[in-house]
Amino acid sequence: MSKVLVVEDDVAFGTMLKTFLEKRDYKVALVYSASEAFKKISSDKFDLVLTDVRLPDNDGLEILKSVKTENPSTQVIVMTSYAEISMAVNAMKEGAFDYVAKPFRPESILQTIENALHTNEVAPVVEKPKPARKSNGPLSENKDLVKGVSEPSRRLSDYVELVAPTNMSVLITGESGTGKEQIAKSIHLQSKRHAAPFIAVDCGAIPKEIASSEFFGHLKGSFTGAINDKTGHFAAANGGTLFLDEIGNLTYELQVQLLRALQERRIKPVGSNNEIEVDIRVVTATNEDLSEAVKEGEFREDLYHRLNEFSIKVPALRERKEDLMLFANQFLDEANADLEKNIVGFSDEAIHAFKNYNWPGNLRELKNMVKRAVLLTKDDLIPLKVLPHEIATSTRTNDSDYGLFKNKNEEQLILDALEKTGGNKSKAARMLSIDRKTLYNKLKQYGIKL
Fold first, then answer.
1. How confident is the model at residue 133 (pLDDT cuts 50, 70, 90)?
2. Which residue, among 392, 445, 393, has the nearest Cα to 414 in the 3D structure?
3. pLDDT, tens digit, for every residue of 78-114?
4. Long-range contacts: 83-87, Cβ < 8 Å, 24+?
5. Does pLDDT of 431 surpass 90?
6. Is cis: bond before 152, omega within 30 of 0?
7. Partners of 172 in the beta sheet?
8. Residue 124: its pLDDT value, please?
9. Distance from C-alpha of 1 to C-alpha of 25, rounded to nearest angstrom
10. How many domains are there within the chain?
11. Which of 133, 140, 171, 350 has a CA that sits 20 to 30 A from residue 410's CA?
12. Domain Response regulatory, which positions (predicted)?
């Protein structure tokens, strides 16, 4: 029976974890402070320590150091909030097996605990230098943008290339994490304004009390706390591109001010009597349905049309599965550079899990997961065991997943693919992950005539 020490200052949460683990045949000790933990570590031997990173009298890093001093073979898993991920990464560098971000369900941590207990800690050895992993082809000037090869990705690139040289306002839509800001940067870099500033603004992060000052600037003494002149986002982007992310979060009052500034190409800093001319291109993004917000009176219709001279919808990652490993390998290159590692690639099991998973967090989730996996991997290939539980255990359940052939809805899948590709058999075959000959045989089998 494995012995586990849980260090958690939240009594209710700690008790829940203890009860959960004891029901699964672990012998669990629970303490609520670092000082109690130090006493337990020095007087007893544990197979695993599960500790919160922040405690009333110390932090999880000190507990980690104490554990590794007393018994290097004891594994440590750090629990942290999303705001403290950097501290958790430091813990990994100090020897923690893994970290889990709160809040989490106890079931989701079970696999991590089992992996930790089945990992043998060995003395550090001097590794032979490994060859740096080669990049998968040249990168564009926007190094964060990866161009896909799937039909949705090619269509996205075509739209960007089409609208970039113009001065049209562009509204970028798509789910959270699909890379809308990178598309905005790409538009800027391919425009005539590429040598001028690109200013990105998160509209959801600006308090409404200071929003006017943030956008248009202010003069010293114009209000309490205005101790210096401030240049607003419009003036900072003069000559270039102003990217307004989550535009749907703007207050109605600020929508009025923004519309006026866009129509007149002039702004007036708070506390000033003088207007300043600005020459900017506005690119906006949202994961909401702005047209619906217009109908409900939450977003001004005139501003919506001003911002939506041209719209681009960024496809979700699940809609371009052909690009999945292309993106994963690019993020692997970036993670290797950031973490000074030389992971060569992904194991077959990991790739299979990637393709089964639905990626609700899209590219952002994939990028964060790959970086975490690179940090955890000790061999050349990223193994299945370092992937988050929900990815490692995912199975395909979506009947509309075109990669699933011999599906009970096979005929419907073929019809859907043909409809989405406008009857183009070559494109439909690629979407279905089969060759054209197989598709023709299936069309004949089901009596589908085009």
1. very low
2. 445
3. 887 644 556 666 777 778 888 777 767 677 788 788 8
4. 84/53, 84/54, 87/53, 87/59, 87/60, 87/61
5. no
6. no
7. 285, 312
8. 38
9. 7
10. 4
11. 350
12. 3-117
CA distance 92 to 60: 11
Residue 199's pLDDT is what?
93
What is the CB neighbour count within 10 angstroms for residue 377?
A: 20
Residue 110 has, within 13 A of its CA and on its CB side, a CA count of 15
What is the percent of the chain with per-residue pLDDT over 90, rounded to a whole number? 43
Element (H, E) at 81: strand 75-81
Per residue in 39-60, pLDDT (tens digit) is: 999 999 999 999 988 888 888 8
Beta strand pairing status for 381-382 and 75-81?
A: unpaired
Domain coverage including residue 449? 396-450
C-alpha–C-alpha distance, residues 150 and 164, integer Å = 21
Cα–Cα dist 78/41, whole Å: 16
Q: Are 414 and 403 in contact (CB under 8 A)?
A: no
Q: Band of the pLDDT at 376, cuts 50, 70, 90?
A: very high
SS3 per-residue string spanning 355-422? HHCCCCCHHHHHHHHHHHHHHHCCCCEECHHHCCHHHHCCCCCCCCCCCCCCCCCHHHHHHHHHHHCC
CA gap 47, 80 in Å, rounded: 21
Nearest to 200 by CA among 172, 220, 219: 172
Q: Is the dihedral of CA 115, 116, 122, 127 positive or negative?
A: positive
CA neighbours closer than 13 Å in the CB half-sphere of residue 42: 8
CATH code, domain carrying 218? 3.40.50.300
Residue that terminates a domain, selected from 291, 313, 335: 313
* Sequence-distant (≥ 6) Cβ neighbours of residue 200 within 8 angstroms: 181, 184, 243, 245
The verdict on 30 and 156 lying in the same domain is: no
Is residue 131, in this structure, part of any structural domain at all?
A: no
**Alpha-carbon gap, residue 345 to 367, rounded angstroms:** 14
In this structure, the number of other CB atoms found within 10 A of the CB of residue 293 comes to 17
